[in-house]
TrEMBL record, chain A:
This is Phospholipid-transporting ATPase. It catalyses: a 1,2-diacyl-sn-glycero-3-phospho-L-serine(out) + ATP + H2O = a 1,2-diacyl-sn-glycero-3-phospho-L-serine(in) + ADP + phosphate + H(+); ATP + H2O + phospholipidSide 1 = ADP + phosphate + phospholipidSide 2; a 1,2-diacyl-sn-glycero-3-phosphoethanolamine(out) + ATP + H2O = a 1,2-diacyl-sn-glycero-3-phosphoethanolamine(in) + ADP + phosphate + H(+). One of its GO terms (molecular function) is ATPase-coupled intramembrane lipid transporter activity. The active site is at 414 (4-aspartylphosphate intermediate). Residues 42-96 form the P-type ATPase N-terminal domain. Pfam families: Cation_ATPase, E1-E2_ATPase, PhoLip_ATPase_C, PhoLip_ATPase_N. It is an enzyme of class 7 (translocase). Its EC number is 7.6.2.1. It is a multi-pass membrane protein. The keyword Metal-binding applies.
From TrEMBL, chain B:
The chain crosses the membrane at residues 43-69, 327-349. This is Cell cycle control protein. It comes from Coregonus suidteri. One of its GO terms (cellular component) is apical plasma membrane. The lineage of its organism: Eukaryota, Metazoa, Chordata, Craniata, Vertebrata. GO terms for biological process: phospholipid translocation. InterPro entries: CDC50/LEM3_fam.
Amino acid sequence: MDFSVLRNIISRYCAGEEYWVDSRTVYIGHKEPPPGAEAYIPQRYPDNRIVSSKYTLWNFIPKNLFEQFRRIANFYFLLIFLVQLIIDTPTSPVTSGLPLFFVITVTAIKQGYEDWLRHKADCSTNECPVDVVQQGTVVRTQSSKLRVGDVVMVREDETFPCDLILLSSSRDDGTCYVTTTSLDGESSHKTYYAVPDTMAFKTEQEVDSLHATIECEQPQPDLYKFVGRINIYKEREDPLARPLGAENLLLRGATLKNTEHIYAVAIYTGMDTKMALNYQSKSQKRSAVEKSMNAFLIVYLCILISKAVINTVLKYAWQCSPDRDEPWYNHRTEIDRGRHVVIRAFTDFLAFMVLFNYIIPVSMYVTVEMQKFLGSYFIAWDKDMYDEELGEGAQVNTSDLNEELGQVEYVFTDKTGTLTENNMEFIECCVDGHVYIPHAICNGQILSAASSIDMIDSSPGGYRREHEELFFRALCLCHTVQVKEEETVDSIKRGIHQGKPTSFYISSSPDEVALVEGMKRLGYTYLRLKDSHMEILNKDDEIERFELLHVLNFDSVRRRMSVIVKSSAGEYLLFCKGADSSIFPRVVSGKVEQVRARVEQNAVEGLRTLCVAYRSLSPAEYKEACYQLSNAKLALQDREQRLAQAYDLIERNFTLLGATAVEDRLQEKAADTIESLHKAGMKVWVLTGDKMETAAATCYASKLFRSSTQILELTKKRTEEQSLHDVLFDLSRTVLGQRSLSGLSVDCQDYGLIIDGATLSAVLKPSPESSGSGNYREIFLEICRNCSAVLCCRMAPLQKAQIVKLIKVSKEHPITLAIGDGANDVSMILEAHVGIGIMGKEGRQAARNSDYAIPKFKHLKKMLLVHGHFYYIRIAELVQYFFYKNVCFIFPQFLYQFFCGFSQQPLYDTAYLTLYNISFTSLPILLYSLIEKHVSIETLKRDPTLYRDVAKNSLLRWPVFLYWTCLGLFNACIFFFGAYFLFDNTTFTSNGQLMTTNTQMMFGNWTFGTLVFTVLVFTVTLKLALDTHHWTWINHFVIWGSLLFYVIFSLLWGGIIWPFMNYQRMYYVFMQMLSSGPAWLGIILLITISLLPDVVKKVLCRTLWPTATERAHR
Amino acid sequence: MASSYNAKEEDGHVAVPGGGTIQNKKPDNTAFKQQRLPAWQPILTAGTVLPAFFVIGLIFIPIGIGLYVTSNNIKEFEIDYTGTDMSSPCFNCSQSFSWNSTRPCTCALPFSLEQPFESNVFMYYGLSNFYQNHRRYVKSRDDSQLNGDTTSLMNPSKECEPYARNEKMPIAPCGAIANSMFNDTLDLYYIDPNGTRIQIPLMKKGIAWWTDKHVKFRNPGGNPNLTSAFQGTTKPINWRKPVYELDTDAENNGFINEDFIVWMRTAALPTFRKLYRIIQKKNNMTPTLPRGNYTLEVTYNYPVRSFEGRKRVILSTISWMGGKNPFLGIAYITVGSVCFFLGVVLLIIHHKYGSRNNTADIPN
């Protein structure tokens, strides 16, 4: 006995350690399984407390500070501050400490407030009441007290408190409807199923009597994947194992709809729920502007260091004679003298660093961040991007990339749902080459079509009749459409009138709805799924019942789906529908050629085609299939893979029945948008899973390809004839040869490339021959670069991302934008520099993973051409101006070192040093960068070519940066030497009097600094005023306001003897300066000289070399 | 502002979707939110800038001429008395300098004024190569001590080091600036055509900022007896006299001695001049300083040879725009002319290219 216990423990231990780490076992209602059934695995689960907050009251300060100082800029400023504290510094630690403190505090307050909101939200969710079944009664408790294994009762319209496995529902068929609006934004109702063996438990007592365990994988964030197994123990019977999938799992955050109540068991709680796991941060995307900014920063850091080094070296060279180093009037302290010269030189270097550190301003980061954060509101506020039908406007998920919208060079767009409406309409079907067209329903009757086409009523031969019947049944049966019968019309699905109650077809795929509705119009109505039986109302108003045995779900790899049904006659039938490419290879009989011809013809017209096939299964075959399927479904590991294998085995030996064609209309203004993007210099690529002909037709319709476009094909069909190598070289010769011929002529032939997935992977695959590995890729890129439009069809989702990446890392490093609406676009949205999601019908996954979400494709035009352009102009000016104004600020200080014996004497007073970037010059540029509009919105929309003006980061290129820096240096020299000559050469230094009781005054070094500073503040602010094209009252207010503020502050700062300060050097300095006539004249003169070159440059450039934007002004 | 905006949070941390936040998401149609605020949209074109250039030119040139003329009318006389030359009368004094010498060294420099100085004459001393703006020097003072704070008087700020204490006694006024106060005495004599020396009266009050003298600088304790007010302190090392013996006039003694205040305002550049005395105009009839011969008598106390400094005396009249200042006038004239010139250039460009651009625009 002892031995067995020991063994038990050991096996438990080992099992827990080795075999079951990646799965968990849940005991429903905490009832242990019958002894010996399975090894008991003790696991600790978190409680159902949701903690989305980052901080607690105790760790807020240290943790937040740590987080903030992890940013390299903050750390740099902290370092400067610490240096100031340690060494004998020229400027008080306040000058860098205060701005840093301000920045840190503001950020901390913002983050603290956000965290407080999260705490509050957490609290309210954690305390929300939940009904738990305990000992056969319903007990109300708090959500946070919920534990794994609890059986929970959820009523209609309640939100699920954690991830649950549905046990039973108040509906007879064990289903429940759920909306996941708050999770992924999909407002449609989804159906979830209970395991058939538990769905009979209708009351608390019955549920409590259930004795079962659930084995499932450990929590993982994918919302749409779940793998598990329920073991139901019945007395004296082997445990019953049933597979559990995502259709059994109710996610936390979703809401129960149209179902009175359900019983479910908690399996993932608290932070283990899929919702919580999904709040992990996404990878950060950095914008091109940010990269340039960092490059400029490095330049400035180099300037800073070299300035400090130069000054240190010069200092020691200059003071090598002791009379300069220590003249009799200015001795060092004993301690100072005792220091080693190397240490002294090092501290001098640090002191120079401190003195010049303002050249890299703290406030720039704050301002850029504020600009991005506040600026992104304009996108969300834009009523032009609001969609009435959807009830939503654009949505900003990250504000880091605003300016990147103005830099896009490549647009990768999905076709279905993005370019097109994803609003499907059944157009025709073709059975064995005979075409059927349903027509608009008039009074419930189908009108006959044009005479040339066979109609459904035409009497067919027996064979054809049989196929026809099978075809319509196949379409009625092979789908996952649900029928929703209800009075509340809160879903947007199209209703179909069926006598009294309104019923809807609901499906995650609009194609299926279109097909089933099309069938209805052709006389075959799918009624419902009841007790695993699908009911069909056929043409003769008879109800046919088929038992639904298996659904082989659609996936994008297989590109088909199947159902296995048992007809009332007891036949086992497998119906399959799918893309032609995935059906034809599996067909063994049927009129393949006719169908193929029709399919291709339809595809050319831009219709979406599906092929339908069937296979009748003998009972033995059915049994085999059943066995394989259930085996695969029960597997805990590699379930996906095993399912795919099983599907592959079952879906073969088809008889082709026919094909369908569904139209997907182009989105409103899609063609106009694409045309604008083209004019704006962007290359538009369409990446679609659709087949070539369909996609090409859409491209023509959306003006991606024009009639003049010469189409280059790089498809499997061609590569089968020629080798890939030859085709590639052929194409590149065409493209490049043409270009070199017409090198001078203006209108180049415009090329469009079509490539399919198979060829693409061949191109991208590193070939085994050593020579050609990177070669194909380069040639392919070269061809692409010369094509104005590229269409990639037959793309798997991952291939879309591959294409984006291929372009992204090509040698020009163009900025890419990916736009899509479906889950299959997520990978490319994440890959591209800017990812845009369309809030489409295929759910919210794309929108959730995107950086920006817009309701319609047409909104992309305003997003890029207007918002992107504005944001880019604004941030570019912001960055350049910030560096400029700090050059102006610090360079005079550098020059002053040459006149004060390299002693690190600051030119400006501490208050000025501190407040220059914080308050005197901060607001005008911030407001400028929020509301500047150099041209009107209408002009930008009207003339997309203006976008080219800002392309390729044109305002932040090195020449522009150099210009700004030189302007800054020039201004700094004017400020400094202007003041120098006023002070040095003349009596002005010691004397100046005007209209005051003071007859004379002596101007000292602080007056000198104040004079320079006054000119500086005015010049820098007026420079911005000159750059402002759009003067609203806000601009007037902040520009004149900050100048006024500077004057008032200076008057106040010098106006009184400040108590508790150990120096009063600014006392009356500003007033004395203003009371002197030459000072006024000097200030006006210096401001004029400083601004003059920039004005002249502006005027000359505008007149002689105007940009397109400038031409648009008049 | 944030209400219409969905919870947009940092690093993907989204608030728990709890309460139903069903609200009308339609953006407000306000001018601000739609970026359609009414605005003045000036554009810098040749056409708009041209008049400004001409106006600036027209304003600046006369101002410049005015300034230049005024500046030229100011009479200024400068004499260097450092005594580095063998020939200089002060050569001996400059060579034989020692801090400890009890007997002051004096020298006399004769000079003559070619033109009479009509209005008030300002007398400056100028120093060269003297780094009053050296950081160690600039901060070496205690403003609260100078403001009459008694605790600071006894405990000078450590900024004053190494001039804070002398043998445990606090120095008043402490610091390097005070310690190195200029202490040459300059006297001016007019040599009558008949050879008699007439001492010219020099005003030593009214040379500092009023606010400095009356607010920023104050003697400690409000004690009229300065000797007792400065009890317990010692004089700066290089001074000959303690601070309370700078002048006999109680209004000009101690910390509020104007020579001291003037010295304490540190100069911006290593070559500077500071106001020393004012020669008041007596009446309208006679010039303040008639043309003729003068003698400058210097009590040579201040050593500058060690750091290759120079000492000067400057006599100058002033005008409405201050002292002699040709720079400002020339600069104004230059800038005015440049503006005018640019105006003309722009005018040509505007006529040549501006119209061409306009015509080119029409087909667009």
